[in-house]
Amino acid sequence: xxxxxxxxxxxxxxxxxxxxxxxxxxxxxxxxxxxxxxxxxxxxxxxxxxxxxxxxxxxxxxxxxxxxxxxxxxxxxxxxxxxxxxxxxxxxxxxxxxxxxxxxxxxxxxxxxxxxxxxxxxxxxxxxxxxxxxxxxxxxxxxxxxxxxxxxxxxxxxxxxxxxxxxxxxxxxxxxxxxxxxxxxxxxxxxxxxxxxxxxxxxxxxxxxxxxxxxxxxxxxxxxxxxxxxxxxxxxxxxxxxxxxxxxxxxxxxxxxxxxxxxxxxxxxxxxxxxxxxxxxxxxxxxxxxxxxxxxxxxxxxxxxxxxxxxxxxxxxxxxxxxxxxxxxxxxxxxxxxxxxxxxxxxxxxxxxxxxxxxxxxxxxxxxxxxxxxxxxxxxxxxxxxxxxxxxxxxxxxxxxxxxxxxxxxxxxxxxxxxxxxxxxxxxxxxxxxxxxxxxxxxxxxxxxxxxxxxxxxxxxxxxxxxxxxxxxxxxxxxxxxxxxxxxxxxxxxxxxxx
Length: 499
Ligand SMILES: Cc1cc2nc3c(=O)[nH]c(=O)nc-3n(C[C@H](O)[C@H](O)[C@H](O)COP(=O)(O)O)c2cc1C
Ligand code: SF4
Fold this sequence. Notes:
Layout: E1 2-4, H1 7-10, H2 14-24, E2 36-38, E3 49-52, E4 55-58, H3 62-73, H4 102-110, H5 113-123, H6 135-144, E5 151-156, H7 165-172, H8 174-188, E6 192-197, H9 202-217, E7 233-238, H10 248-255, E8 279-283, H11 284-296, H12 298-303, E9 312-319, E10 325-330, H13 335-342, E11 352-356, E12 365-366, H14 376-381, E13 390-395, H15 400-414, H16 420-437, H17 444-459, H18 463-467, H19 470-478, H20 480-489
Parallel strand pairs: 1-2, 5-6, 5-8, 6-7, 9-13
Antiparallel strand pairs: 1-3, 3-4, 9-10, 11-12, 11-13
The chain binds flavin mononucleotide (FMN) and iron/sulfur cluster.
Flavin mononucleotide is lined by residues 127-131, 133, 155, 157-159, 243-244, 246-248, 281-283, 286, 462-464.
């Protein structure tokens, strides 16, 4: 069995759970029970999460985990975990109880493909996988690219700590995601779509398979969609597993049956993607936004945000909050309203110390920045990112250097090793910070961290290596006094590090 060791699980007793279970099963042979660590399982709102024989469980106590292991050892089938709760509050579903797939029906009849691109551009729909690249431009590039063979790919790999929104969207709004993919196929001229999903999302995979099946039965997929003469096929591909498998070009390599390592860019997938053909690759939430815009209209979409911003945003909140979960918010909502409002504030009456707006890549921000709006520009303006809306919250009990180390270890573990700056640099950063949390190291190491970070930023092939420094550099920026206490006085102010 493996216990998740990343951000939300780390602050929810994962280490103690793992150590306790390792002790409990210490006498057994490793071929019967091996207790180890695993990277984020996508259950941050139900931390701590464990994986037993590839079955994922959330919110488990030591006794529950032990009982599950004994079930497996006894050769009995492991139970399935309950899936997501229904969506409450704001809903992006444009259909309600009415007939679904209205955007595909309209497009199949009118064939106004350029009109769809114009609407997506006018709405300003950003990609929701993290980078915020304009979706209309991406689809236009694929549509205009020469050649008859093109592809549409949905990225449902969702493996960065704190990122849980796509799981929830697939559970509650699978029909919007599939409709967005069909529209992308018709607009770009792709005849084949691939739904790429992480292997730990078995329940969501079945939901998507069922939805695809229903679409084939209803003539919304396959040959001659709704008698239009247009065709589009859709199949599910299960990711081999690992954070890097969600990087768009590594994902393409994985589908092609190769090792999931990023390609050098350019060329970009819109020109040279899957099987070297033009490929429209988008995140789950991006596709789900497309029918909202096409059915409800641009004015509706623009009116959903606040402070002049457009659309709704799914965010996951985990860590030290009263109500961890996934929430639908107007784009541009201040982080305060989400963390201290929807998520119920800090649990156990503790003080609010810090938050990561988007998992380890975004770095850590102090509670004093909680009035920053959750949108791409506002977060970039304070040196962070909206990313995939993976908000992880920390109380006064947490040591931010320990949290930096936890995130650095994630990047080090998940680095694919293709390029030297990331492969060697991520290990070096872990070594330096491990030293600081153990009473070794000096202030001179800080200069080394600066040099290493800029080399990794400049010379790494993909976003993993380029952002791997963020947890540490953000802590050095915002929590420097806490770091200096470790290095100069060998004291962890939060009493977490083994000094
Ligand atoms: C290491 C790494 C992991 C990524 N994982 C995901 C992921 O799980 N899901 C996702 O949509 N995008 C992920 N991305 C971003 C994708 O490369 C790509 O930008 C995105 O899927 C494009 O979709 P969008 O334009 O709709 O945002 C990842 C990027 C990197 C560098
Ligand atoms: S930056 Fe890291 S994860 Fe990305 S290709 Fe290089 S070694 Fe692999």
